[in-house]
Amino acid sequence: MSSSLATGSRRISAIDEAIHALPIEWFRPSRAIYWTDLLAAATIGWAAFAWAVAARSALDRAAFLAVAMLALYRAVLFIHELTHLARRDVPWFRLACSALVGVPLLIPAFLYEGVHTEHHRQRSYGTEADPEYFPYGRRRPILILISLGASLLAPLALAVRFGVLAPVSWIVPPLGRMVRERASALAINPRFVRRAPISAAGRVEEAAACAVVWMGVSLWWNGHLPTSAFACWAATVAVASGVNAVRTLAAHRYDRDEGELRMIDQLVDSCTIDGGRGRRMLIIGHTLVAPLGLRFHALHHWIPSLPYHNLGRAHRRLVATLGGDAPYRATVERGFSPLLRDLVRRSRRSRL
After folding, report:
1. Which pLDDT band holds residue 6 (cuts at 50, 70, 90)?
2. Tally of CB atoms within 10 A around 279
3. How far apart are CA 334 and CA 98, in angstroms?
4. Which residue has the higher pLDDT, 278 or 101?
5. Three-state SS string across 163-194, please?
6. Is the pTM of this model over 0.85?
7. Which of 111, 89, 85 is nearest to 98 (CA)?
8. Range 51-56 contact pairs with CB under 8 angstroms and sequence separation of 24 or more
9. Kind of pairing, strands 332-333 and 272-273?
10. Which region, left, alpha or beta, applies to residue 135 given φ > 0 means left and ψ of -120 to 50 means alpha?
11. What is the DSSP letter of 90?
């Protein structure tokens, strides 16, 4: 037993030494990269969205909408980066994210603020307090299908959350508490209850999202907004939510159903997608499904402070540095399919 612990400690030490060897400048967020990436994704996304709404043929609409979905999906996922950025690192970035994509898509930053950090805490990971972990690998496959199906209903759920529940909760305090605890977090864990209060900025985002819902309804009712705009918006949000749900299922092994885990256990329970060199189209596909470095999920869990634009080269440095028996290497998979197949296979063995 002591020999096993000693071996594990040496492996962890090797990872830590490799991480400490990373250049210090890699840990500094590049304001230019963050702003350029967000503005480009939002501009392309909303321009393509407008063309999709105005398109006269179904083929043109589908083509423009596909571009809009990919671009806006990338833009809205900056909500994840916001939770790991100090506001002084990239000033005004949160406001821009909320105004450009978060509020219009009804996915404001406060749904992640004070929530995602619980997924990174050692005492919370894999427990009821973790919003982003559910032991799918130890539960029946039907729960995986329910999770994927529920993700496609995101447009309806978000419209009801911000258009109906939000304004009523402002005047009915008991409902306000329920909405904060059970309807104010992007979570896959049905047992999760939000404890963190919603900040003043979050309250502003909530009010703005409510205004977006009713402004859209008013413009449509008065004939100023075509029905196709609602259809395109719903399709964009549903696809973004569905793709993100698939990505999330491949982010971990979801095989833990017990209490607090050691950091090394959290590492090997997380996954990294690396299609390998010379397979450019495969890498592009992985990047579209898991943009902003999210395919390096295990590395992100080990170094959550590393900006997304440096995760790729840090991963390559670790793979080149660490030995073949390093725990980090056990997190690397060549694609989403092997991970999803393995998850379903383990789930089929469960009777819970």
Report:
1. very low
2. 14
3. 34
4. 101
5. HHHHHHHHHCHHHHHHHHHHCCCCCCCCCCCC
6. yes
7. 111
8. 52/228, 52/232, 53/226, 53/228, 53/229, 53/232
9. parallel
10. beta
11. S
Residues 78 and 309 sit within 8 Å (Cβ to Cβ): no
pLDDT of 22? 86
Torsion angle of the four alpha carbons 302, 307, 310, 312, in this order, in degrees rounded to the nearest 10 = 50
Burial of 211 (0-12, 13-18, 19+ CB in 10 A): middle
Own/partner pairs, 59-62, CB within 8 angstroms, 24+ separation? 61/228, 61/232
For range 131-144, the mean pLDDT:
93
Q: Using DSSP, how many helices (H) and how many strands (E) does the chain show? A: 17, 2
Structure tokens at 86: 């100090």
With both helix axes pointing from N to C terminus, report the angle between 227-249 and 280-289 in degrees, rounded to the nearest 10.
110
Give Cα 21 distance to the centre of its chain: 28
User: Tokens 């060549």 identify what position?
Assistant: 334
Query: Would the pLDDT of 7 be above 60?
Result: no
- pLDDT tens-digit series, residues 26-70: 999 999 999 999 999 999 999 999 999 999 999 999 999 999 999
Helix (H, G, I), strand (E, B) or coil at 245: helix
Determine the pLDDT at residue 74: 98
Q: Which residues pair with 332 in a beta bridge?
A: 272
Is 11's pLDDT higher than 80? no
Q: Token match 């050691």: residue?
A: 262
CA end-to-end span of the chain:
31
* Tally of CB atoms within 10 A around 340: 14
What six digits make up the tokens of 272?
């990294």
